[in-house]
Amino acid sequence: MVKNKSPDLTPRQHTVLEKVWQLEHAGENVTLARLAEGLGIARQNVHTHVLALRDLGLVRYEAQARQTAVIRLTEPGYRRLGKVAPNTPNPPLSLPIVGHVAAGQPGVADQHIEGYATKLGDLLDLHEGDFLLRVRGESMLGIGIYPDDYVVIHPTQEEPLNGEIALVAVPGEDTATLKRWRRDNGTVTLLSENPDFVAMTFRAEDVLVQGCLVGHIGTGRARQTRFTTL
């Protein structure tokens, strides 16, 4: 899940959570009194928000008689803020999601951070069994899939809809191929996204669907081909 202001957090709860992190990061003991002072709100209101954050598993807070309870972020709390908990071994890189880019008409860049992504599952609808394949060949250049890029595949033997991109095993090939699928009665045509590669047509019973395309990860900077114009 992308870490952002999820519906289960009110704006005030998110502000309290951020203040807990700021005080922790500054090396302070985070108490109700310190939060109330830093936020400029009543201590009782802070207490209500902290209890809600605790119930969501985002902070640790245990009030004890005659002791000042210290509030600490939990690991999910750090993740919700797009932060890495201290002493986390090999912390994952957290990338901000800063809005949308105009692929049509030019627009003003949106610098509002919508959330943070640290793993593929933050961006793609992944399921158990999904896997990565490294791309070999240039048959899918027309949709921006280059050699040495990665594609995310969901394993399935269900027949794709016409026009969908599937991982398919075909006769005479040792490895499966990634192509656009087109079914026409008893035959299947596998289409490339590169005019240098001819369409391949087989009897439907001779091809085996092994998966469907979930996502694509480019490994290089934008590259110019004959499919692009400057």
UniProtKB/TrEMBL annotation:
Peptidase S24/S26A/S26B/S26C domain mapped to chain residues: 96-212
Superkingdom of this entry's organism?
A: Bacteria
Q: Signal peptide position in this chain?
A: none
The record's InterPro entries line, in alphabetical order, gives:
LexA-like (IPR039418), LexA/Signal_pep-like_sf (IPR036286), LexA_repressor (IPR050077), Peptidase_S24_S26A/B/C (IPR015927), WH-like_DNA-bd_sf (IPR036388), WH_DNA-bd_sf (IPR036390)
Q: What is its EC number?
A: 3.4.21.88
Q: What class of enzyme is it?
A: hydrolase
Gene Ontology molecular-function annotations:
serine-type endopeptidase activity
Task: Output this protein's name.
Answer: Repressor LexA
Q: Which UniProt keywords apply?
A: Hydrolase
PANTHER family under this entry? LEXA REPRESSOR, LEXA REPRESSOR-RELATED
